[in-house]
Amino acid sequence: MTKREWKQLVAVVALVAVIALALRESASSRVEIPAGRSEVVFWHFWGGKDRPVVEEICRRFNASQQEFFVRPIAMPGNNLDLKFFLSVAGGDPPDLLNQDDPIVADWAHRGALVPLDELTSLTEIDELSKWLFPAAREIGSYNGRMVALCNGLDIRALYYNGDLLAEHNLSPPKTIAELDHAARTIAPPGDASLTRYGYLPDPRRLWSWGIVFGGEFYHPSSGHVTADSPQVIAALDWMASYSRDYGADQVARYRKGDQALPGAAFPLLEGRYAMLMDGQWRVSEIAAVQEAARKRGEAVPNYGVVPLPALPDGRKNAGWVNGNFFVVPRGAKNPRGAWAFMKFWSGFDGHEDEAARACTAGGWIPASQHVVEQPRFQEYLNRHPMFRTFVELAASPNQRPTPAVPGAQFFQDEVTRAAEDAIYRSLPAEQALTEATRRIQTRLEAERDAPQ
Amino acid sequence: MEHSTRHRRRQLRQLTAALPFLAPWLIGFATLIAYPFIASLFWSFTSYDMLSPPEFVGVENYRRLAEEFVRGERFGLAVWNTVYFALVSVPLSIVLGVALAVMLSWNIRGRAVYRTLFFLPSVVPAVASSVLWLWLLDPQAGLVNYLLTGAGLSGPGWFNSTAEAAWPLAWFRGTWGFGSKDALVLMSLWGVGNFMIIYLAALGDVPVQLYEAAELDGAGPLRRFWHVTLPLLTPVIFFNLVMGLIHAVQAFTQVYIVSEGQGAPAGSTLMLSLYVFLAAFKYLEMGYASAIAWSMFVLIVLATWGLFRSSRYWVFDPSGARL
Asked: Is A101 on the interface with B (CB under 8 A)?
């Protein structure tokens, strides 16, 4: 052999070795499916500290029975919707997906989802429908048919710093007027160098305040977008009043500063606000801060939470709600296994205690009152009284999700943009919302006319 | 006759030998570039959501684009943002690139170190540098505004502001300020090292005798730069201008990251490429997205054609031939 041939031989051997190693590697990273079980490929969006909780649920499910085996695949980040949709379009979807974006209607409209009544009997669907909280039912429905199973709700309420309120002789606000008064007492307008605000509205929260002000964003029976209804306009105009008082630019900058906090820290705990709307996931952060203070032997900071303040004679316990839900894609190879796991996690059909266990481990709000009533969950509520406010709100009929229409994501983005225009760019609320409504309506009609 | 048959046979043999070697590229080109290119033209005349078969809708997608353009909504906004970004960032990057290259061609101590330092940012991955700039330009906690405040200036809102520093009308309206697109321009200038390297190479090609002749004629350093260096750089400037323009119109990665994936705030960073992505994969309108992509293509072709037409007036060609 010549030197050149030797070199070639070595190169070929090296290449084969690399490929063989790579194949070995990918083979060994696959989970072993026990014999006689069928695999359920489960994609989900949970990351961070929630991921081990999800893996534990899967482990318990796998240990609980002999027929199916769930293999969880975590896909946190922005593009799960895209990956999922492309997998359906490409004909190789997972068996089950857990997600929390407003995409149920879009996908159901395009026939990408298996309706739940194809997975089980209509009687069971009826029972399920009664079993769920109203908001959870609405999140999973499209055109009167259940196409997704909600397994947890995200509820927002008004957190407050009790020490700060007490300092100014204020109590937690129950009405919009009280909220305004408290906000402006703590941070008097006219001072450009404020380092703490009483309250500042977040444009994304128009969805909540619009409902609190008595508005609706969509009228299902007529199919009309009503984001320009007088109540929603009044809500946005009220939100923009903070920009008028403090200056739009100043508000925008200050809010941007919240996002720059390391690790998405809760701005209320950083002392940036006296009151702030946020979801139930902040309860555990507050508890951790209080616990740390207790351990150090310092005064325990006083935080609390109340339902969103209302207008006089207005909607109580109102707000925008979203949730995480299961969907089974068209083309799923193991829909029966998927259905079994969905019931196990959500707690339906006798699995309430399992669901309570999952919710207490993750600090999640169940999708059903039956799970809330479990002793395990009640005990959790006793330990975390702040959480109770959220769980009580979950049962309220005034908690409304994003309308279940095709293009819901567009709908949501447009409304948020209109709110940004009014709050940060001083566009009149009515103009911003009228224009957004026209665009959403046009888009919605185009979707409805599109071929299925 | 016989000769030409033999010749043709040999050519055929060569081709069959060459084809397997060319195949990976040919297959890649056909499936990943040529097919999507042609398919997207077809889809731009359809309503297509990737699940159901595309349905022909004629010029409806283009009509919608025209409507949005006229109203100054999404597509109109995206065209404006893209044009603004390209028109501000490309000329600035040329001026800065040439200036840096000229300075780094001087015989100064540590020249190689400076050259490396100025080139370094252009090898930093776009995602990493975008996140870095997000922090640097944070209006509240960012280093840039911290320094500006220290110097007694009020720092701009950067990525949180819709202001447009280079828009002349804003100068009179009193809404002048540095906003999200200006921050993007700043980010793009940070990566000017790529252009600088090409200018540096071109500077090395300028014949020394031209400088000597100019010097004998009494030309000072500025006149030498203006009448010798710059004209000889114009072919390279032209190249960078065309490439820079195409890149600017296609800007995506940085835009996606700083705009929270949706052109925030208030659509001020909604560029054409981001709009294509949103329409296709967030709103599931592949047909409409294809129409945007083709409009973008036409925009790039027109701009490039315009540049080529203009080149005969300002691009110097030592061989005397016109481009």
From this structure: no
